[in-house]
């Protein structure tokens, strides 16, 4: 372990997840020599920042630690000389997510936080903000690691690598962790007894599983999947996959593959929720309101149990673990978003992938996964192309590029309807899409239809 | 030109296209030293073979040629010592095509001869028959070229290369020819004045266009596309593409790209036709009945004008041209389905592509096209993977593989509905799908649902 | 054919090759509507420019043509509005080539115009000059084609593409032409009756040969090679290849492969010539002196027969042919140096290759060659890497890069001796290597040894 | 740790290295639940097997262990139900190695155990024997891991993967270990404090080094290399590399790179040794004779210190470590020869590479290294092609293939001299080259020269 005390900055510090993050740091107090934690938010998030920031302070105090917890709206002051910067911001807050879900559904197409039309708009809103943070980091803390768990985490990571030209970035997601926990349970084993080999893209990866004796257990888990229940993460339906298709795949899908493998079924389920004003975003908004009520209680000095029901469990803990793994050169395996470098043969060398990686003091070193079979290969190559177009549209504000991304996204029905949804979303989110200003004006003037 | 007289065998000789083929040979009588033409069909096609075969004989006689025109149901007798074998068969005849179109549409998904669920079933029915022909060829005419224009022409070509292990195969389609003619007209030029560079897959390719002075005219044609009408081939709707998306593509799409770029719009148009019992297959069946009535007329001694309305114009002429180009080492450019060999960097080296090729006596040499941009790359990589799975399912009869192909095909909504349509099509076509016998029985017994 | 009259500029116009170039234009007078030919040279070449330029004028006049033949030392005046620029310059003239050959040989290593230590130094001297011409062209004739036949033609082409960022460049060599002529003769055929498929790098390519009937004749030519004589080009020894190795290769080597496949034997032959002051450069210098004596004769009005003995026969004719093929959109096949674009799968996508290409008005379109077998693949990948390093060293003047290129060049024995030869050549050529000024000074001061 | 007791078989058990191997097992007695160790040798090695086998028994007894140590000439009896098979055999013993070194040197070319002409002949003799072992393993212990440290370890591993179709194979070498130890010392650090990232081929790899803080120390080590001494392994000269070339490389070379980067200097050093009958093989033969004298001493019950001078220190220990790492799913990093799978982008996907790998119960998972710069890329691609040809020649006995491998090997001067050395080595080793029987007869009859 290194001696120097470290400074950690969390952008979007007013998030409801912050207590899990603080808990994660406290759990690692013996391995992370923290001096300062800076929780940063914007004017619109000031109230939440105060609430959750004060809870964070109570938690740190309760743990008997002398860490400084700073709450600020001044991002640049916070970033100065930081060692690690984590980003957990949500541009436009949950109201924007509600639009990402409801507008596509109102046209009969799937709406989802990170997939389809909604996911692309989350990228359009988020990527320019993250690139702004990266510009500040280059100036104020050029040796800091950026630990991103803002969705869409894979596209954000690729944007930072390609357009931010910043290499010390790692993206994170809780889905691999959830699969590891759930499938270990299925097999009656501890996760440590198994080797999970993940590869793919954020929210679009597969894995294979091996035991200590070297046996591949992938098929055993597939068998279990079609015996027991299928639900892995809180925020995705537990609808069953089709058995023969998964067996043909010869790998384990992730929970999000339901949107692609069971698209039609998922759509019908979501349309039902849409009618009942009960889309995921709407549920989450209610849960968050309750959480902030809890957080206000001055007697609350630990992370409340209810946060685990929020849907992003293990996210913040993963962020703490990657910070500790890099800081301490832990040489453990984590699943992260990082530059491909050939680890996934079928994807471009310079793209971001989500992959089991060996974490060292110099960052993640992806473990070679090799070639996919045709079914996985074709789909992931399409998804990566869609990501590339989406990122480019997010950076440039080019309308044709955005329409192209909509056209090839397998969750968006191609054609006039795609264009209508694109236009409606551009208008709905216009406050957060300065790069698309010209196109939005043309739409409003009826010149782009 | 070589001296030896040649023997040409046409499998599916009873097709309504045969008069165009015969006309094509007659037009090339000075460059093609034909001795025998064998028109082969199966018992079910015997009547049509007689009708069209007799017309063929009248056409040859009218042209003052001494070519022998043989009509036979004995494929092996025909293949013996052939120089060129062309395949234009349709397993299950137009009734099968009607099912390929109507069954998917009855579930609200696009049905089409070569795309989506219907196209995959055409592959399932056709590939085993073609591989059987190839086995006969290896024995009876191992130096003959197989000129395939049976759809799906790209998948058939790849199946012959990979599973038939037969290299002297070339696939053909009339779509590039139609684009070349139409777009030359748009520019007010002769096709010979322009260089059309095509690359992609059968019914899924793009092209760029250059004039003799070396200027790229791709953008000029895009401009024209959004001024004038868009219709290129008889059998595909002329619905307009979305301008900004095509401009972003920076290449010209083919007519079939409408199914992918304007999917939702095309679906609605087809659903209307479905309701009116007027799908393309139903129309074609009516046209063909009329054609055969015409063909019966003993006074008809040339290809009737009405055939040009049939939808496959230039198909058979292309077959004659490739036969002449190979036989005469013509060194001209044609767009054919052939082994990739790196010409399309983004697709597997050993796969079949449809590409502008230099035609020599030793076959087509594809002209390097290079890398696609992200939008084209992602989609074509998905399509190729779908083709690989479809071909493998066609060869093996593996149900999981077929379901996988359905799952990743962008024209099939993934999930339970895909499985229902798969099962319904398997039952509907069971007479032509011996390789799927076991799975079909299970479906019928309610064991696969 | 286009209407506009064209302006052709030849840099290095004082070359002894110029009469072949002029003859080539005259032969094509009906297809090339030439208005002006500008022969450009530098102060040091002024006398030769006058001699050969006047011969050129006599040749044009003798042919009854009204073309203007301008002789000038003002490159920028010449380039203004040019349509085609050909480069046939030799930085440092033949005296530099003598050093390229004799200095390596004095250390017991092969010295050659385009291979080994000498070839790398020719690149070091030439590339900066060509890049200077390209900068002028971007300003003065940005639509002109650069037709380069200055050696090393492949590296020069790659430098123009990568560092000059100029796409309208094509490199040429006479070796493929010589092989085509020689091997057609071996088979008793006309070149037009055969399809020669070449691929590789300049002076490092292989080919396969097919007849009009589609038979591959590669093996037939190998058989002939080991029956008859082996000599293909004037400037390379006719020493026999090793039969079993060539048979294992399953392709035909080029004449220059002797330096790599028969290295030790070639070295011994060259050392003998070195002792006798009869290296190729020394011979050529004598031949050139004789040629210029001939050229002075005011009665000489055609290309003298003796030039054909010079060693570069067909070079200039190829330049004329590529100019005509591009200008007239001839759609013929020529072997040129052009951007790979995947045509040679085993080499980097963006590198220059020498390959059979379809020549259109928009330039050469390489015909896909595909993968090499291991023997060819490994060597050409090494050679390409060496070329990349050499070009980078030529552009940057980086000593370590130059030493690296020497280290991996298979014609240079690695180690201290390589460094000694590198240093000696840097000193010897210092007038033509401004980019290496700092390193040369250090060598002279004994600081780099 | 697993419960079952394990059976380890060592082929070439009579090797002088066996005491290090036994010591390695004894050191790991708490993690390796050994039941039986079988030392296998052939008739010619019987005496050595007895001597070293009895020492092994004394060592085990001295350590207070109940392991059975079997000595046998019956390979199949030994292999039955083995868990791990290690191979440390030397076909033809040290006398063959002496020929591998002296015959090339007698023609003025480098002779070396694993490089150049000698190394290729070691492959020719060894690969068929190893493939025979693999055939036995498939039958008798199909789940056993083959741990190969017979040289050339990389080519042997590739042969087992490609021609043996056996996946549970791992190759080992001590060179990376020696570099890790030496360079850690240079930096005044423990190896555990650093991350060494190796990639390349056996005896032809490079590495980069990072500290726990994430700083790359590669350049620091290069600086040290040119300050202090350069010697890393006993068996390779400590001659200095050229500083500018190594700096340009931006990676650390391995000791064996001297044969390629300093070829000429190494050759002169070896020619001196050749004259003095003091080549490495001759030295080793003397050392081994002394070692066996020591081993005979019934009072010797531990590995004698002198073995550490033998040159292969850490080899056997690495074998014990990989066995333990796989058996115990240790999840540590080791440098092994394994299937590439894209880890080294520039080499064929299915080839064997030597690379830092994460060792699990299901074998090594290579850590992605990515692309090399041009200098490293070109050379390693050539070396891999040479390896492929050598392996194919070893398997098929094809003379042309062997001559091709000689032609492209950068340590063999191409041409007639290569052929002479090839022929002389074929004759010299004919007892161990049954696959080349026909060619050897032709050489002896003067029909191949």
UniProtKB/TrEMBL annotation, chains A, B, C, D:
Coiled coil: none annotated. It holds the Pfam family Glyco_hydro_4C. Keywords: NAD. InterPro entries: GlycHydrolase_4_CS (IPR019802), Glyco_hydro_4 (IPR001088), Glyco_hydro_4_C (IPR022616). It comes from the Bacteria. The keyword Mitochondrion does not apply. Residues 198-412 form the Glycosyl hydrolase family 4 C-terminal domain. PANTHER family: 6-PHOSPHO-BETA-GLUCOSIDASE, 6-PHOSPHO-BETA-GLUCOSIDASE-RELATED. Homotetramer. This is 6-phospho-beta-glucosidase.
């Amino acid at each position: 372990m290194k001696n120097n005390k470290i400074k950690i900055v969390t952008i979007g510090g007013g998030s409801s997840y912050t207590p899990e993050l603080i808990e994660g740091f406290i759990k690692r107090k013996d391995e992370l020599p923290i001096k300062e934690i800076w929780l940063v938010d914007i004017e619109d998030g000031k109230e939440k920042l105060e609430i959750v920031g004060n809870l964070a302070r109570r938690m740190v105090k309760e743990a008997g630690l002398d860490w400084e917890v700073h709450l600020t709206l001044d991002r640049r002051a916070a970033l100065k000389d930081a060692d690690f910067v984590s980003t957990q911001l949500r541009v436009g807050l949950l109201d924007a997510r509600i639009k990402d879900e409801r507008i596509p559904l109102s046209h009969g197409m799937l709406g989802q936080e990170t997939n389809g039309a909604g996911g692309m708009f989350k990228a359009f809103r988020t990527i320019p903000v993250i690139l702004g943070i990266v510009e500040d980091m280059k100036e104020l803390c050029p040796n800091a690691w950026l630990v991103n768990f803002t969705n869409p985490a894979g596209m954000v990571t690729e944007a930072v690598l390609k357009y931010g030209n910043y290499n010390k970035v790692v993206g994170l997601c809780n889905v691999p962790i959830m699969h590891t926990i759930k499938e270990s349970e299925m097999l009656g084993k501890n996760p440590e007894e198994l080797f999970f080999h993940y590869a793919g893209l954020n929210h679009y990866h597969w894995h294979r599983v091996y035991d200590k004796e070297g046996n591949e257990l992938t098929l055993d888990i597939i068998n279990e999947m079609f015996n027991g229940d299928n639900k892995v993460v809180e925020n995705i339906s537990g609808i069953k996959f089709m058995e023969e298709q998964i067996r043909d795949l010869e790998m384990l899908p992730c929970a999000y593959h339901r949107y692609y493998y069971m698209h039609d079924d998922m759509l019908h389920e979501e349309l039902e929720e849409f009618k009942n004003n009960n889309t995921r975003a709407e549920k989450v908004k209610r849960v968050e309101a309750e959480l902030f009520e809890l957080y206000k209680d001055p007697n609350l000095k630990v992370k409340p149990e209810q946060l685990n029901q929020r849907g992003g469990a293990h996210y913040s803990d993963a962020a703490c673990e990657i910070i500790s793994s890099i800081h301490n050169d832990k040489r453990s395996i984590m699943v992260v978003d990082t530059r491909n470098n050939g680890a996934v043969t079928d994807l471009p060398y310079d793209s971001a992938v989500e992959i089991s990686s060996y974490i060292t003091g110099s960052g993640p070193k992806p473990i070679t996964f090799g070639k996919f079979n045709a079914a996985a290969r074709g789909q992931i190559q399409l998804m990566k192309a869609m990501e590339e177009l989406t990122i480019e549209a997010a950076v440039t504000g080019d309308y044709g590029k955005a329409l192209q991304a909509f056209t090839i996204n397998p969750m968006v029905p191609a054609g006039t309807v795609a264009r209508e949804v694109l236009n409606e979303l551009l208008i709905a989110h216009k406050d957060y899409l300065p790069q698309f200003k010209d196109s939005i004006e043309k739409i409003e003037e009826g010149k782009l239809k």
